[in-house]
Structure formats: structure tokens, C-alpha cells
Amino acid sequence: MPPAIRIGPLVFPAELAVLAVAAALALLAARVLDRRPRAERRADVSGVLWGALIAGLAAARLGFVWEYRDQFAQHPLGILDVRDGGWSGTLGLAAAWLYGVTAMLRRTVPRPALLGALALASAAWLVGGRLLAPAGEPAPALAELQLQALDGTPAALSAFHGKPAVINLWASWCPPCRREMPAFARAQAAHPDVHFVFLNQGETAPEIARYLQEHAPGLRNVLRDPAGAASLDLSNRGLPATLFLDAEGRLVDLRVGELSAATLAQRLVTLRAAASAP
User: Which residue did the predictor score with more confidence, 132 or 215?
Assistant: First the structure.
């Protein structure tokens, strides 16, 4: 499954599509499994399912915020900005089931319909997450990229093997790219054990240099991808996109969309865990 889905000019992370499909399957299953005569049916099952979805999303976000509370303490309003993709999926799934089962015990909701819908939605969400997980193999498109340093000399991502690497695909005209850049700059300074590479998509060297001078003068490892090939091949032209590679260049994670300091910290934990695995 591609990490991003394009609908006209809009690009959405595939995680949203998985969640939408899981919710749609739950509502469909509830209608199919509800054996009551149509005249006796009310919106009770679908109402419980919508409540379970809201409870699950709220718990998933709050669990993530609590886990990375130090980062959010510096920017409290970031708690409300769910565009960063920060969720605790397991906690959210547990909360959705708890809400559903509690509502089933308190109301006259048909149990087979509700439990079957919750089970199908959970399975769809879990399977979708597995399909989205990188295969742990080197991304062929990365080795084939024709890259340049800002001075015009050829460059290659192979120069950054040997340590875990974070490769950010960005452009100065992209608002979420600009919003997440300070978090990346701080992370680059704080984590010398990780290569941070900033791969600009399709802009000229003077444009990039002017933007960096004004907004991120201390940023290192800035390269040009003049054809924007990385975003075309890896994120369906969605920007920003961030690749997390282990020391051998294998893809550990891929995020299409904005990252906050908290979600970047979360993925660095995952990256280090993958790097230390035997």
C-alpha cells in the first residue's frame, strides 16, 4: 500500500484511509449483522460505533500527549494540532472496545451486531497497519537519485550510511515543511548519533540558500533533488515526507505529512530500537 493517497491536488497519509475503511466496514457490518426487523431498528448500533471511534481517537491522542509531555510542555497548543500524526494506537483501540462493551451492557444494543462490527473494524485497522509498515529493505529509488550539494557538486545518500539516518523531503513553498523545520533543526543539534539529511525537492540552489539564511542558518546536510524524484517515487509527491533509515540504509519508517517535536521524538525511539535489534 502506498504511504500517501492523492486525490486531485490533495495528498493524504494512507493511515487516514485505513481508519476510514475500518470505520466504514464497522458501520456496514452492523447493518448486516443486525437481525431485527427493519422497522424495529434504530440508530443505536451506529451511534455506539461513532461513540467508540471518538473515544478511541481521544484516548489515542491523550495517551501520546502524556507519553511525550515534555515536548508538549514547550508548546501546549500543539496538543490540539493532530496533523502531526501523534497517536497511541493500542490505547485508542482499547478505549474504543471499552466504550463499545460498556454501551452494550447499558443499552439494548444487539450484541452480535456490535461485537462483530468492532471485531471487523479492529482487524481492518491492524491489517492495514501491517500493510503500511515498511518492509525493512533498502529503498531502490534512493540509490538512483541524482542529487547535488548546494554548490552544484554531485552528492549521494550512500555517504550517510553507517549511522541511522532521517531524510526529510521538503520545499520552501510548503507551509508544513516550514512549520516542522525548527523541530528538525533542534533534533539535528541534539542527536549527533543520527544523520539528518534535508533533501529539497525541485528548487534552485539560490532559492534554497536564501530560505536557509533567513529561517534555518545552522541546518547541515542540505541537498538538492532537482527533479523532485524522491517525492515522486516515495510519497506520491506528498510534502513534507520523512524517511527513517537504519545504519545499512534499510527503510524503518516513512511519514508523509508534518511532524512535531513529539512525533519526531517518537520515531527516533523506533529508529534507535530498530538499529539496536540483532
Answer: 215
